[in-house]
Structures are given as structure tokens and as C-alpha cells.
Design brief:
39% of the residues lie in helices and 17% in strands. With 522 residues, the chain is of the alpha/beta class. Strands 10, 11, 12, 13, 14, 15, 16 and 17 form an 8-stranded mixed sheet that branches. The chain has a 7-stranded mixed sheet with strand order 1-2-3-4-5-7-9, sandwiched between helices. A two-stranded parallel ribbon has the order 6-8. The longest helix is centred in the N-terminal third of the chain and has 23 residues, at 2-24. The protein is elongated and about 110 Å long. Bound molecules: hexanoyl-coenzyme A (HXC). Hexanoyl-coenzyme A (HXC) binds next to helix 5 and strand 6.
Amino acid sequence: MMKENKELLDAKFEKLKRLKEEALLGGGQKRIDAQHRRGKLTARERVEILIDKGTFREMDALAHHHSEDFGLNKSRPLGDGVVTGYGYINGNKVALFSQDFTVLGGSLAEQHGRKIVKIMEIAMKSGMPVIGLNDSGGARVQEGVISLGAYADIFLLNTKSSGVIPQISIVMGPCAGGAVYSPAITDFIIMVKNTSYMFVTGPKVVKTVTHEDLSAEDLGGASVHSEKSGVAHFTAENDMGAIDIVKNLLRFIPANNTEEPPFNPNSDPLNRLNDDLQYIIPANPNQPYDIKTVIESVADNSEFLEVHSAYAENIVVGFIHLGGRSVGVIANQPMVMAGVLDINSSKKAARFIRFCDAFNISLLTFEDVPGFMPGKDQEWGGIIANGAKLLYAYCEATVPKVTVITRKAYGGAYDVMSSKHIGGDLNFAWPTAEMAVMGAKGAVEIIFKREISEAEDPIAKQKELEEMYNDKFANPYIAASYGYVDDIFEPKFTRQRLIDAFNILENKIDKNPPKKHGNIPM
Ligand code: HXC
């Protein structure tokens, strides 16, 4: 009897083993080889690299489609073209899905979609990030509208999860049609160079409709989306590089909106002086310097994870640790268009600020801004609504906010860049700061128009008046006299003063009035 029972049970165990082994095969060796030839890893290889060894627990490995149409009934691959599950990355819990291009082109339909929704729901309920590894031919054509419905279920959850748990998308293959909107709602998109692309309509349709003849790469490759559209926040050389970016990103962000970001203990001295910054501001106010030098100098071990590094480079955003604390940095970049604020830089910084605020990451602003970009293109493109996004994002952010004005703080941009007036908690200036409605040239041409035109030597008069204006306004002392800056210190003290400031603000409590949601100018 005992022996019979064992045989019966062993047969059951054997069946389970066989099914699980079958699920591991994906689309078979031929298709796996094709994936490798393209320079891509398979869905499972990617998971293996991403997740701490031995911690991945797969779900729904035995799910398959139930379609009878267009020949699908001849094969029902286990897993239905996506690997889903949970595990740990550097000891932190995460949920993930990894689309398997070797199975039906990673196309998404009823079961594939349900698996993603299930893992997202678990992540939402238990407060852990979701990482999506996208490599898919899009909606599974054979399953028709069911595929479209499955996408929409994911879009809804992406939206509900937004601001609750971090959502990170890696695009590691095709991502086309409406499928792009799931990554687009997530917080960060990482694209792999040469093997990934994203577009709403592919090259063939584009050629028919607009007669533009473009390759997939030129239409929606990694460089297009990291430099031109701003859709991608990061690009990687290959799959491994993309996975490394996720691992690095998770060092700065919490598991959900009720937790603090992870503390990063390190040996960089809290009182380290920034001697390299003491003379960084050029004597000539029109001469640039690299704001990234400033960010790296103050950061723990000079480590700066820049986001959107190739898009709207006139503003720099990204993460640093300061005394172990995770901080989001927003900084005007004098090296690019003199650090002027325009449509793209405003959008880029606004989205970053809102991410940080949603996930309890303090904000550090370095300000050196000549103002908003003038001109027809900017006005017609909506600099008003887009600049307002940045203003709105700063105003609404309740996390600790610290500002350092390194040089120019002119015009409306002075107000926008986390000024005291819109809720900056601690605002500092270097002695090199200049705070005024506009630069000396424009100002004297308005105030002293008649004096200049009636002068014997108008050029000399203008110069004299500009010098007078600069003496009076091109400094931080008038602002300090009104308490618009809390302190002025030499550049070399910046790191220690910032660590000190964020420590003081650690337990800051600030709340916006209750509302369904604000109406940010979209
Ligand atoms: C079903 C698909 C598929 C799809 C690919 N496959 N895409 N099966 N539905 N959407 C299958 C192919 O039939 C093939 O199966 C295998 O996956 C690999 O595809 P190949 O074409 O051989 O690979 P490749 O040459 O690399 O081309 C990849 C591709 C191409 C560019 C993605 O397959 C393609 O154009 N697919 C269709 C893309 C598309 O139009 N999707 C719908 C987008 S609209 P076999 O068995 O031959 O190996 C959309 C709407 C979402 O997604 C809406 C949300 C609201």
C-alpha cells in the first residue's frame, strides 16, 4: 500500500517537474539562438541577472492561452510569452515581468496580460516596485480585441500605481502601437541601444501617411527617445547595462510612497570642504562653468546618477547621496544655452520633482539661470503652460527643499527655481549670486532709456549705468536683507552646509490642502 502510494505521488511530482521544465524552454532553442544573434538575452536570462541569486519565485509559469483561432490551438506554450514573479534586488523586494520574445513574439493577449496585472496587484498591495522588461510584438493579433482589453487593464493599474510604488520599464526589444503607453506611464524608461524601439506607428505606416522614409531606429530608437523626445530617461549599451541601471536606481528610491528612501552609509567625511568649488565661478558673468562639477563635488564619493542626461541639457537632474541620504538634484546648466529655462527643460525638471516628492526624496536645487527663453518658437510651443509645470511642481512638493544660488537668479526664473517664496525651506547663496529682475544691460536700457539716448557718448553712458546697476543688484545682499536667502556662504562650505540642512529638515511635516488632485497645467 505504502509503495503504491509513493508511486502515485512520484508520478504527480514527475508531471509537475515535466511541466515546469517545459515552461523553462520558452520558444525553443532555435528562437533562443535568434534572440542571442540579435545581441539580446532571453527573458529568463535577464531575470537571472536582475534578481539576487536564488531569490526569484515565478508565478503562473503554467498559464497558457485558450484561444482556438488562427491556428493558435495547435500550440499553447506554457507561460504565454511572459515570465512574472517576485524576488530581491540587493536585498530589496521587487515584482517583475519579463516578456519572452521567443514565444509568439512576446505578444500580449488575455493570459499574458492577466499575469502582468496579477503581479502588479501584489506589488501594489504589499508596496514594492514593479520592474517591467519589455520585448514584445505588441497586441497578439490572433486574439484581437481581447489583447487590446488586456493592455487597457495594465494601463489602468499603471495609473493607479503611479505615486504609490515605483514603476521602472526597460525596453529591450520592440515596443510599438498602444503598447508604448504602459512604459510611458511608468516612472523611468531605460532603452537598450540598437535593439529596442518605441513608436505609436511603425515605419511602414509613417511612410504611407506622411511619406517619411525612416528606419525603426531613426523613428523610435534609444537615441531618438533619449535626446529628442525625452521619452527615455536612460540608455544602455546592452541588456546587462540596462539591468545595472535598474540596480543603481533602486539604491536611491524607496519601495513605496510610505517609506523613506534607503540610507546609503559611506565613508565620505560629512565635513569635507569643496575647495575645488571656491573659484569655480568665472569673473566674466557670461562665461560658463559645468554645474555637474558642483553636483559631483558635494555628493558622497562624487557619485551622481544623472537622469535624462542627453535631453534638455540646459537643466541637469538626478540622484546623489548626501551624508548617506538620498537627494534629488535639479540644477541649471550654464554650459548649455547659459542654463536658460525653456519648454523641454521645464517639463524634464517638473516630472523629476514630482517623482521625488511622491517618494519622499528631498530636493536640492542649484540655481544659475538667466531667465526663461524668449522667442516665437517658445511662445508658440507653450512656454507659458510648460514653464508653469515646473513652477507648479516646486510649489506642490512637500519634501524638504534646499536651494543654493551659485550665480544668476533672474526674473521669473528666480521665483520658479525653488525660491523661499514658493516654499523653499532653506535657501542659500554663494557671494557670487546675482538676484534681480533682469541682467544689467536689459535693465538700464529700460530704466535709463532717455539718459542713454541724450548722452554725449551713449555707449560710455550705458556702460557706466550698467556698472552702477551691477554694483547695486548683482549680489545676494539685497535678497539677504529681506530674508529671501537664509545665509550666504563661501562655495567651499557647500557640502557640509547641505548635509547639515537636510539633517535639520529630516522630520519636516508639510501637507497640501485635501483635494481629489490638483490640475497641473498639462
Ligand atoms: C502575434 C506576433 C506578433 C503579434 C510578432 N509575432 N508580433 N504574433 N501577434 N503582434 C510573432 C511572429 O508571427 C513570429 O512568429 C514571431 O512573433 C517573431 O516575429 P518575427 O516577425 O519573425 O520577428 P522580427 O522579424 O524580429 O519582427 C519583430 C516585429 C514583427 C517587428 C515585432 O513581428 C512585427 O511587426 N510584429 C507585429 C507588430 C504589430 O503590428 N503589433 C501590433 C502593434 S499595435 P513565428 O511563429 O513566425 O516565429 C499594438 C496595439 C496595442 O500592439 C494596443 C494597446 C491599446
